[in-house]
Amino acid sequence: MVSSGPAEVPAEESGRRLLQRRFTARLLPQLRLLVEECAAREGLCEPRRGEFVLAVDEIAGNAVEHAGGSGRLELRQVGDELECRISDAGPGFSEEVIPELLPGLDGATQGRGLWLARLVADRFAVTGGTPGTTGATGAVVTLSVRLR
Question: What angle do CA 143, 114, 27 make, to 5 degrees?
Fold first, then answer.
């Protein structure tokens, strides 16, 4: 269940697109419901579905709070995985900022959502830049869980 180290991310063209949305804080509740519906339709069972939706919500909330108030979500089925890619145009960050221990236990005051997302994902990666742009700031967080 826990991913360790950098993960290979499938090529952007692979997979079947299930959902693509731009979002702001006002749209986060609707986004959660859409992700939940897609995950259920693709066969992701509880409790993994709830964990996945929570992780996606944490990352989307971070994009709103720390990266300019909006972001873009793309949900796809890639092989036997449900993959979510969230991008933003904020200042960017790297996986090194994610605490190894539960934030609060190691003195960190931030990073709980990222820590949780990395914990529940079967595959997790943070890359810089916004897809389709050149020289842009921002981050792309990709997390996936196995469907079977």
Answer: 75
Nearest to 83 by CA among 12, 5, 4: 12
Q: Can you read off the two tokens belonging to residue 78?
A: 């890639």
Secondary structure (3-state) at 49: helix
Give the tokens for residue 55. Answer: 């992780």
Q: Which two tokens stand for residue 132?
A: 């389709």
Burial 24-53 (b: 16+ CB within 10 A, else e): eeebbeebbebbbebbeebebeeebbebbb
Taking only the tens of pLDDT, the chain with its 148 residues reads 444 444 444 444 579 999 999 999 999 999 999 999 999 999 999 999 999 999 999 999 999 998 989 999 999 999 999 999 999 998 888 787 776 766 565 555 566 788 899 999 999 999 985 444 445 578 999 999 999 8
Nearest to 144 by CA among 127, 126, 122, 125: 122
| The pair of three-digit structure tokens given for residue 18, joined into one six-digit string | 């299930």
Per-residue b/e over 113-145, b at no fewer than 16 CB within 10 Å?
Answer: bbbbbbebbbbbbbbebbeeeeeeebbbbbbbb
